Queue: 2 jobs
Job 1
Amino acid sequence: MILRINTLVIAVALFFCSPLMRTAHAQQVQAETQAVQVVGFAGLKENTKGRLTVVNGTLRFVHAKGNADVAAASIEDVVTGKDSQRVIGGTFGTVASLAAPYGSGSALPLLRKKVDTLTIQYRDADGGLHGAIFTMPRGKAEQIKKELVAQGAHTSVPILAGFMKSLGDSREEKR
Amino acid sequence: MRTHFRNALAAFVLLTLCFAGQLRAETKQPAKMKASAIEVKMIPSDELTLPPEFQVSLYENLIEQLRKSAVFPRVYRDGDRNAGNVADLITLECTVVKFKKGNETLREVTTIAGATSMTLRCEFTDSDGNSILVRDITGKVRFFGSKLKATYDFAKKAAKVADENFSSGTARS
């Protein structure tokens, strides 16, 4: 009977503590998003898909074959931008837009989704300058940039100026 | 008699053409400059507003294409400390002369409009800072492909220019 009560107490305690554990984990990984590495990381092919996170002062790109890390302190410039890309892209999109009957394929490039771009410039251990470009869902790049700057990265476009610029862009889009 | 004359004339014409071809081939290939390493500088975006993604893509593609072409045994990045120890180091600096940001949708729908194009002045300098070669190179993307394909096109052409004018002085593997 006592054993059962003890088990029950432990179970209840664990139940109430689990949200706290989740919160602690969330603090460790502060910003995370799906991303595509367009160009830049050594040993990675162009347009590699993965997840971009900012963990413990490091920008980490997790992809199918492993991780690529860049220390936030080594980032000399981090800039965000806006872009758009084809919904049906790649070879299939190109072939479909060429081969669709009665020229209907020409409409395919019109189906586009808006994406954010994140461009970074960083130095390696020898002082060599590297650059990398990522695309990610809209609204995520500014979040990643904010985290990186908070953890020691530098930027040529201050966050407030970037926010004002994006505000201006969205106003122009509405017009 | 006539046949002999005709044959002699034909032989003469053939020989002349062969010599002319050989001479032209010799004159086309100028003496290549020797260098064992190149340092690629980051493309500045001060004079013309070059978007940062173009700037980075140009730089990374340039390094990749120079490494692929294997003209220089070593290709150093901007600021690499190891480049300072190389005696016959060549430095490549590119500045944007012309930049036209196209429109991918327009390009793919019309195939005649919306091309992205850029012209960069590439200056190769020796270790003393003397300019040894200056070329204007244009990169374009016309039909299909994202705007950054123009940077790839530019990098391929720049690597070709390097291949035509420089040699490592050692046998290529």
Job 2
Amino acid sequence: MQKYFKNSFALILFFTGCCMLAQGSYIHAKAWLAQHLLEKTWAEIQQGDSRSKPWPWADTWPVARLVVPRLDINLLVLAGDSGRTLAFGPGFSFASVLPGTIGNSIISAHRDTHFSFLKDLQNNDEITIETINNKKTFKVRNTRIAHRDRASFTEQETTAAIHLVTCYPFDSIITGGTDRYIVSAIAE
Amino acid sequence: MWNFLNRFLKRKPRREYLYDEFSPQKSSLVIWVQRLILLIVLITIAIFVLSLNTMANAGEHTSGSYNVNINEISHGSLLLKNGESQQYQPLPLLNTDVSMFISGMIVRSHVKQQFINNSEQQIEAVYVFPLPESAAVDHMKMFIGERIIEGRIEERVAAKRTYEKAKKQGKKAALIEQERPNLFTNTVANIGPGESVTIEIQYLQLINFNQGSFSLRFPTAITPRYIPGKSNTESMNIYENGWALATDKVIDASRITPPVYKHPGRTNSISLNIELDAGFPLKKIFSRYHSITHSTNHNGNTQIQLSNKKTPADRDFELVWIPETGYAPKAAVFTETLNNEHYQLLMMLPPDSNMNNDQALAREVTYIIDTSGSMHGTSIEQAKNSLLMALDRLRLHDRFNIIQFNSTTDTLFYQSKIASFENILLAKQYVNDLQANGGTEMAPALRLALQNTETESYLHQIIFLTDGSVGNESELFDIISKHLGNSRLFTVGIGSAPNSYFMRKAALSGRGTFTYISDINEVSEKMTSLFNKLENPLMTNLSVNFDNIASAEILPQRIPDLYNSEPVILALKSKTPVNSIQLQGSRALSPWSASLNISQAKNSKGIASFWARKKIESLMDNIHGNVNKQKARKQITDIALKHHLVSKYTSLVAVDITPSSDMFTPLKKHKLAVNLPHGQNNHTQSREVFQRLPQTATNAELHFFFGCCLLILGLLSQLIHQASFRSKLKKWHLL
């Protein structure tokens, strides 16, 4: 074996390169796999098993299904929007209301996994939110870019609104940016 | 993978070096130099690409113009509603005149806002301004030339309707609404070109008395802060976070002191005039952030003014006065009788214990730290830092234990142990090794902490660090109130969006306090002030007693423990006059009691309003938990209407009797009113809520990018290593 590794420098580069690629793929794989595991939980929750968890150590659970028919998007929205939760799927902020109820519901997800489709959403696109007991159709009314700490939402007294949030710009490879891309949709 | 590598490496026969012109020694040196150069070039390219991206970001940032909306204003500011520009235009507010009269423990403030319309058209002005959190806003006057119109209190919706009607009729009207307990909006309709309208707002406020000094704060700046969205009772009911309440009890100054960003050219100036009737000789009087002048006026009261007549309103004003030694008050009672009901405000400072640290009551502290997955990232770091600080503050005779919970519960020691050097060291090790992962099973941890209170003669304190993302809140409140006993529960909220409803309520049930840490830089400051409290408990188990107590209503309903020279402050309402009040408590395990004869109490206007304000506050606090929202809402409305107070559900409105002389046609005005979308949204609702958004980018792409870079680099270095390739390069004169 020894003789194959004479150029140890190249080997180290290869190895770390592969590790990084694997790590990157892992994030995508996790995002993809989690949604599949969540499907099962969602079915159980709909059948009334409210304590069902997608995996034993999970600290989140699906609360709604988000469908964009035009772009063939079908995602399960999770409770909470901590970094941990967002790795598995879009999450709604506990500081906002449950998707589909009256008021502002803020749903965030990663720009490179679940919410990469946000850039393709256009005004008047339909978004369906299905919760345990109801189903509502929303229409995209407005897209904007706002600062993370300065985003404001018009208080909704009578209608349900959802705001899909992801990092902006979409193709930046740097994380930790302060701009957010917000797609707001109002219930029909 | 290995096969590929093997094959790749086999293409490089070692013996080719024999035919190399260079000696192996030299060639390897050259190779390394080349590799170094290559590496540097690639890194430079990478950095260049990255910086390009950042520059693009920055460009995006500056070119995107932010619309002005209410939540973006960092200090009290006037917005002008203008039909053509489709958004609020800021307009300099010419005058804010504040005069205050301080009498004993109560301040009555008159805030005069003069609106001058120097534009060509009739305008509607919207002024968003801060007031102290505990302010009881009870009067509003509109000055138009010589005429004075007194504002009436009405239900919020009704007041709005009255205002809109007057606006349509071309009459001058003013409306004061409460946005949050410390943030109000003043809307003035139909100010004609060149006209000026002055609105005077009056409020009552209680003086802050702590550590022997009195202080008064007047906020002039609004710090943008996180406001959770409005919740709906029909939803899951667990994460209900009424936004107005979230700011109700923020007492820490750092969040209200100077704002984080400014809009140049929109700074208002302010003038202050304060008359102070302290009731005792003063040793010292000063302002924390402004320079002031003071003199004694003809009434023998102290008159205070700002040295700079045109002071920009960009930081809070704080006045502090300290009584002459020996004149420090021990108690104060003020009364007011209104409609045969007797209102009292009682302040009492328990005598100083003069205990030095050795005699201070030994504590048994249980730290509970949330290590669930939602704490992952900066939250757990903040919690760890807080906990490490806490460990350093323990004294040798204290006992302590640490409980962590996620899906399971784990404790540092089987039972609490003394804070010896070794134990602290063990604990620090334990804390450093904590990792956030898994679910949030809070109940077992809480039960464990509350059970671990066998050692008598210790003061049991539980410090609970969490972001509170739980679903079974009511179950947890139940556990706390059932098993609390002599323990006190202090919650510390961690992270940018903790479930503050849960934590405030938990602290309330646990008879402790709630500390909120949003930023890692705040850990030290916030935790130090919490520890100062915890280490010097002065008085516990306080209760109040007087004749006919059954017919009286006392606020706060549960008297909190006293720490560090804090006074007891009680507001009471009773059917019959109260002549004497007994206070009981225990200090360092020995009973303490005091009796106050209050038949001679000073009559003071505004005590009833103060009581009502406290009552509204406590009702608003309960609104979270109670399903019966409508009932609480009605109660609040009734009290507010009775006491003429602005609240979340009531507003002050003033309408001029005669329409403005230079009135536009009603049609055009109507159009103007309709054509006023608020901020950047095309909805007709006018209130906006603030929301901090989470981090939403993964480093997957970063990994891909660097992974690819490294693979390319590896390939290059491998190629260069091969003699055949090197000879080719040589042929091309590249080497």
